[in-house]
Amino acid sequence: MSKVTVESVSQAIAGYLDPYLGKTLIELNLVKAIDIDAGDVRVSIEFPYVMAGLKGAIQQVLTSAIEDVAGVDSVRVDIRQAILPSKSPNNLPAMSKIKNIVAVASGKGGVGKSTVSVNLALALAAEGAKVGILDADIYGPSVGMMLGVAEGVRPEVKDGKYFLPVVAHGVQSMSMAYLITEDTPMVWRGPMVSGALQQLLTQTLWDDLDYLIIDMPPGTGDIQLTLSQKVPVTGAIIVTTPQDIALLDCKKGIEMFRKVNVPVIGVVENMATFCCPKCGHNEPVFGAGGGEKIAAQYQSALIGQLPLNGTIREHVDSGRPTVVSAPDSEITLLYRDMARKATALLSQQVVVDELAFPEIIMRSGK
Fold first, then answer.
1. Shortest CA distance to 131 belongs to which of 98, 160, 158, 106?
2. Do residues 146 and 115 touch, judged by C-beta distance below 8 A?
3. Where does 169-220 have alpha helices with state H?
4. DSSP structural state of residue 151
5. Taking all residues of the chain, what is their mean pLDDT, rounded to a whole number?
6. pTM of the predicted model, to two decimals?
7. Which end of the chain has less Cβ packing within 10 Å, N or C?
8. Residue 361 pLDDT > 70, yes or no?
9. Whole-number Cα distances in Å, 63 to 34, 60, 68, 74, 78
10. Could you tell me the domains of the chain?
11. Residue 238: what are its φ and ψ, rounded to 5°?
């Protein structure tokens, strides 16, 4: 009978490429232990990004591959995700109880940035992460309404100076909308707005977040500069539509984050195609290929392309975004795929100990 070795098991595992990083699990140092006891094999794998939706499929693929190794009698593949803090630019100290801060931005309004932010936060939570979302659009906050938080709900206050985040659909949230009424206009100058953003961020008692999504206001103004210079943002996602004018503003947004040393994780192209509800024909009504061109031009990634679909708008208007309202829909699957891809790319910024190796455990046969 053939003897099972670490090398033979590793070769079997190496046949699987990570779909988001394009390397083997061995190359990515995700295999933490290979335990061999005669013909019984146990493998421990640790992913640094959200992947709950893929866990079962990955286990099945790896189990089948290892079972084909000569001499193997039984296989157990243990998979878990361990989200680590990513390296923040500009030498800013990390925030307590927040591992990663991701800004979702756009160069112009009307591209669906807030809708993407909310659904992305919910997709991260569905994939097994602890998630918060901060509405940084002080002038026009909308995250609360999209999450279904009723008008008049106010955050609890602790010790007279800290806000407790408002939890909706399992996501912690904070917004200026929780502190004012719908009819109250924010007639503030730039410094006041920047100060309000910092207070909302630092005076909220976030509860051990893997990811904090910041829904940015459109443009490249005071809030964007304040965020990049004073907040340890670990990465930014730019939302655009395929229109030429939107792509022009998208470039400006990417350039702004570059100038302040905030890495752009990738681009989300919203309203990429329209599917006719009667015949099923897909039509790129706003143009085609814009998101791919921008991502290629700036050596970034196209994180996802979302359709122009009326149900997405209906769901957020009702306070139950698509990821919650239709968890098995094609659109939700797109959002969850985007969540996995974005966090996989972000995980590559984690400072890794170059001397660390997987723990390979060998035991004598029975």
1. 98
2. yes
3. 190-202
4. T
5. 86
6. 0.90
7. C
8. no
9. 13, 5, 9, 9, 10
10. 6-82+352-363 (3.30.300.130), 89-347 (3.40.50.300)
11. -100, 130
Inform me whether the pLDDT recorded for 77 exceeds 90. yes
Q: How far is CA 32 from the centre of its chain?
A: 24
pLDDT range class, residue 351, cuts 50, 70, 90: very low
Q: Of 232, 254, 240, 250, nearest to 102 (Cα)?
A: 232
Q: Do 171 and 122 touch, CB atoms closer than 8 A?
A: yes
Place of tokens 């829909």: 329
Poorest-confidence range of 116-130, 186-200, 297-311, 320-334? 186-200
Distance of CA 323 to the CA centre of its chain: 14
Question: Residue 233 — φ and ψ, nearest 5°?
Answer: -70, 125
Residue 240 · residue 291 · CB < 8 Å: yes
CA angle, corner 316, sides to 300 and 267, nearest 5? 5
Residue 240's beta-bridge partner residues? Answer: 269
Q: How confident is the model over 250-300, as pLDDT tens digits?
A: 888 888 888 888 889 999 998 887 777 777 677 776 767 778 888 888 888
Write out the DSSP string of 78-139: EEEE---PPPPGGGPPPPTTEEEEEEEE-SSSSS-HHHHHHHHHHHHHHTT--EEEEE--SS
Confidence band, pLDDT 50/70/90 cuts, at residue 352: very low
What residues have CB less than 8 Å from 151, skipping those under 6 apart?
181, 182
